[in-house]
Amino acid sequence: MMEDTRIGLYVCWCGTNIAKMVDVEQVAKELGDLPNVVLSKTYKYMCSDPGQDMIIQDIQENNLNRVVVAACSPRIHELTFRRALANAGLNPYMFQMANIREQVSWVHTDREEATKKAKSLIAGAISRVAYHEALEKRTVEIDPATLILGGGIAGMSAALEIADAGKQVYLVEKKAQLGGQLLQVDLTFPFMYSAQQLRQMIIEKVVQHPNIQVFNNQVVEEVNGYIGNFSTQIKNGKKKETELKFGNVIVATGLKAFDPQGIEAYAYGKFPNVITSLEFEKMLLKGKIQTKEGKVPKNIAIIHCVGSRNKDYHEYCSRTCCMTALKFANQLKSAIPDSNVYELYADMRSFGKGCEELYTKTSTKGVTFLMFDQQDKLPEVIKAGKNDGCEMLIQMDEKLSGEEVEIPADLIVLMVGMEAHEDAKKTGHSVGISLCGNSFYIEKHPKLDPVATTTDGVYIVGNCQGPKDIPDSICQAKAAAARILGTINKKQVEIEVTTAFANEELCCGCQTCVQVCPYTALSYEEEKNISVVNEALCKGCGTCGSACPCGAISSRHFTDKQILSQIEGLMEMILQEEISEN
Amino acid sequence: MRYRVNPDLKLDLNRFGVKEDWQDCFHCGNCTAVCSLTEENILFPRRIIRNVQLGFKNKLVTDVDPWLCYYCGECSETCPREANPGELMMSFRRWLTIKYDWTGIARLFYKSLPAFLIAMIVVAIGIIVIGITKDFKAEAMMEFGHKFEKYVIYAVACLILLPNLLRMFWFVILKNKLKVPVFAYISNSLSLFVNLFTQKNYLKCEGDTFRWVEHLLIVIGYLGLLVITVFFNWFNTDSETVKWIGYIVGALVFIFTFDFVLKRSSKKRESSKFSHPSDWMFVVWLFLLGLTAFITRILVDAGAIENNLWVYFIHLIVIAQWGLLIVPFGKWTHFLYRAFAIYFSNLKQAALMK
Predict the structure, then answer these.
(1) Where are the alpha helices (DSSP H) in A468-559?
(2) Are B213 and B270 members of one domain?
(3) Cβ contact (<8 Å) for B50 and A406?
(4) Pair A468, A149: CB distance under 8 Å
(5) Nearest-CB residue to A368 (from B4, B26, B54)
(6) A2 pLDDT above the threshold of 60
(7) Tally of domains in chain B
(8) Which fold has domain A261-408?
(9) Are both B37 and B88 inside the same structural domain?
(10) Is residue B130 domain-resident?
(11) CATH code at B222?
């Protein structure tokens, strides 16, 4: 241990939060006697400005080179105190926090025992901090270009936002045409704007934009690198491969429609006049609603939640089908005024601006709404008898009347839900992002950071993150664009300091770490038969370090020495207490 | 039993006075919760609205529950969608009325106001023709009027009302395949008569006591007037008692029906907000009937009937229109259907209990 280790210990009262259950004065007094502890103090609120100022002043006056604060959870104030150390001229990592609020005062009722526990936790921290090493902030340069995967409304909106700010965008679309789902839609709910007009408006801007380079019929196989410095190979034109370099990635790969063939009750594929909502949109786009026999249908039934909100298919709500179904009813009623339109729904979910109003409007247009129980029994499509006056009958248990009913139908529209692309996992892997349970991409934080991912520099927008409507997709696209423009503007970005590092001498080249790393930060270098850590990708989770059979990998700030000394300090204090008690 | 969904019924019902509003219903059930007449086995209006929305014609025609509603209007006031469930129930009763009527004339009159007005004019002309044949002589006219009333009552009761009640019985009990214990027919007959004359279930509608009292007084007045004119020959009686009872019952009829007319025009009360022509005809003609009878008797007392025969003449026209059109084919029948509905409902409960 270094001779000149000078530790300052600060025990926080947290008002009465800690002080009422932990004898903070006694703790400070007793632990102040530990070796290397130069001074020990208590204060009402260590995190307050006067509290921080006290630490800064002590560091400067007493030449402290390590600090331990016993207070709340490090998740709350570790950064606060690290900043205070930096302000005092110390490396911020020469700091350790002991959590004596969430782990002690809030969860115990015996003051004496709680005080003992606080003491041992703090002793561990004091013991550990002596082995802390100065770590330096690391930054990487940001390439100002952005790669966007998917040329739907979300991808195009993000592209325009970034390109308008003067930055280069590479927009890669799997299909021959830009537009994504919009290509298949006639009018959009709830205000009945033409989807094709919307699409044309935005495509024109995208195609003509000098800062956007569009690659149609292209799929990105693999993206290498890390935030600020990604690259990929892409075919430009027919054969020539070019390398694209970019600093950020937006994934906007969208989703696809559920295939109703698996739901036997709906007889899709068995009766020609049972069609999906997308097929019906096609009819609307053509401007002709008719049965396969070319007749104008008199009775049209629209079945909601096909493949959605059902434990046998997808449990989630596809979020747009109810409104689309209401839109269909309106379009049907204006195209064929004397038709009977039936909406067979499980629950009407017409949330969002203008959507409940659309429901109210539709309900006054003579549309018949029938409720079924999604979990109990699905409506069943059967062939009608000769005297029924229609081609098909739908038999269902109608929930609101409690009766078994039958509905005559000449045309049945299945409101198919939405699901992730089959290759979502592959695409995700190529950019280093993972999927949630429903095969949609998982966000960094479902509430606080919904467009970022756990991989820095990779963002998810639109339907690939979960089903959503046009405005929601565009909001996400523009949010991600703002985030990216922010990092581009900074020109460089700070990256994780507490990363893993491998000791080449000890590494046996078994590649265990390469397999366990969730961030693809480890790779195998064949020449030397060793594993190498890409520190820009590493999040410092420590998985590789604990898996390494040779002890070749450790994590900065979580070295074996640091962790073991913390345990030692903690155990020593417990022993000491026991001895003094006996 | 599987019912066929039939949205056409909605359109049909729209011709019985109900506004489009009721289609806004999204089945929250507030109307049923607030209704003081709803019981475990009698759930309305929501259940009935649902059946109407889906157009279960065969089921609806066997439903007796709508008659148990007295239209206090609380459901319409509570409805968050302003779907006017009370008015739907009212219109639905009109629909049931034409379903019970075997002649099909009620259907014609309810659906077409011109047809009804033409019938009214034809009846009036008929009376005028009879007046001409009688040379507009007071004595002859009154003698004719007296006989006419009697025969019309018997004829309407036997040819129209009784068959219609039997049809109602067929729909409500037999079509529902209810096995009613014989004893129940007898044990419930007393309450049938109590309800027929008092409509006491009306009192269960909260805060509507005055409306019930008014309604009761009109029933007493109307039935009193009927008995006193038909069976005691009120216009020509010498008995002081009969004379004064006649005055009282006659006054009851036109005073309280006048109040009903006022309420319908002011549209303040939920139940009077919407009026079908059949509602207007019923209250106005009942008012005219009471008023003209009252004045006729005054003129008889004053010995001035010879010179003012036109008053009695109008009374006769009103009576004829009332007896030949409004009673058999108009709103009058609700008087019978309501009471019998309670009776049938009790029979139904007895059958279900068994």
Answers:
(1) 470-490, 512-516, 543-547
(2) yes
(3) no
(4) no
(5) B54
(6) no
(7) 2
(8) FAD/NAD(P)-binding domain (3.50.50)
(9) yes
(10) yes
(11) 1.20.950
Are residues B60 and B203 located together in one domain of the fold? no
pLDDT, tens digit (0-9, with 9 covering 90-100), for B68-87: 998 888 999 999 988 899 99
Q: Among B5, B47, B50, select the one facing A342 at the smallest CB separation.
A: B5
Residue of A nearest to B22 (CA): A364
CATH classification of A500-555, choosing from 3.20.20.300, 3.40.50.150, 3.30.70.20, 3.40.50.300?
3.30.70.20
What pLDDT score was predicted for residue A376? 87
Answer whether B54 sits within 8 Å of A340, measured CB to CB: no
CATH number at residue B19: 1.10.1060.10
In this structure, the number of other CB atoms found within 10 A of the CB of residue A242 comes to 11
pLDDT value at residue B89:
92
Task: Tell me if A457 sits within 8 A of A179, measured CB to CB.
Answer: no
The two structure tokens encoding residue A204: 């024109």
- Which ipTM did the prediction report? 0.78
Residue of B nearest to A365 (CA): B23
Q: Is the peptide bond before B45 cis (omega within 30 degrees of 0)?
A: yes
Residue B47 C-alpha, separation from nearest chain A C-alpha, in angstroms: 6
Which residues in chain A have Cβ-Cβ distances shorter than 8 Å to B7? 340, 366, 368
Q: Provide, as residue numbers in chain B, all residues whose Cβ is less than 8 Å from the Cβ of A407.
A: 4-5
What's the pLDDT score for residue A1? 44
Q: In what order do the strands lie in the sheet with A392-398?
A: A380-383, A392-398, A403-409, B2-4
- Tell me whether the CATH fold assigned to A7-135 matches the one assigned to A500-555: no
pLDDT digits 0-9 by tens, A115-139? 999 999 999 999 999 999 999 988 8
Distance from CA of A388 to the nearest CA of B (A): 10
The verdict on a CB contact (< 8 Å) between A370 and B54 is: yes
Distance CA B45, CA B88 (A): 8
Is B295 found in the same domain as B279? yes
The string of pLDDT tens digits covering residues B269-299 is 888 888 889 999 999 999 999 999 999 999 9
| pLDDT higher than 70, residue A436 | yes
Would B1 be classed as within a structural domain?
no
CATH annotation of A146-255+420-493: 3.50.50.60
Domain locations along chain A:
7-135, 146-255+420-493, 261-408, 500-555
Residue in B with minimal Cα distance to A341: B7
Residue of A396, A403, A404, A412 to mutate, interface with B, max B Cβ within 10 Å = A403
Note whether residue B50 is domain-resident: yes
Tell me the backbone φ, ψ of residue A243, rounded to 5 degrees: -100, 130
Residue A192 has pLDDT above 90, yes or no: yes
Specify the CATH class of A7-135 in words.
Answer: alpha beta
Per-residue pLDDT at B1: 81
Q: Which two tokens stand for residue A164?
A: 């308008």
Side chain identity, residue B217:
L
- A295 min Cα distance to partner chain B (Å): 21
A403–B20: do the CB atoms touch at under 8 Å?
A: no
Q: pLDDT class for A365, splitting at 50, 70, 90?
A: confident
The predicted structure's pLDDT at residue A237: 64
Separation between Cα atoms, residue A535 and residue A496, nearest integer Å: 8
Whether residues B122 and B188 share a domain: the answer is yes
- Same domain membership, residue B348 and residue B274: yes
User: Which residues have a Cβ under 8 Å from the Cβ of B26 and sit 6 or more positions away?
Assistant: A348, A363, A369, B81
The structure tokens listed for A522 are 């480890």
Of A342, A369, A403, the CB nearest to B3: A403
Bond into A190 cis (ω within 30): yes
pLDDT above 90 as % of chain B: 64
B10 and A366: CB-CB below 8 Å?
yes
B129, B240: one domain? yes
pLDDT digits (tens, 9 = 90+) for B42-73: 888 999 999 988 989 889 999 999 999 988 88
Count contacts between A and B (CB, < 8 Å): 54
Question: Do residues B82 and B136 both lie within one domain?
Answer: no
Q: Which domain holds residue B39?
A: 8-100
Beta strands in A45-152 (DSSP E): 66-71, 95-99, 138-141, 146-149
Instruction: Give the best residue of B1, B3, B4, B5 to mutate against chain A (max A CB count within 10 A).
Output: B5
CB-based contact A404 B3, cutoff 8 Å: yes
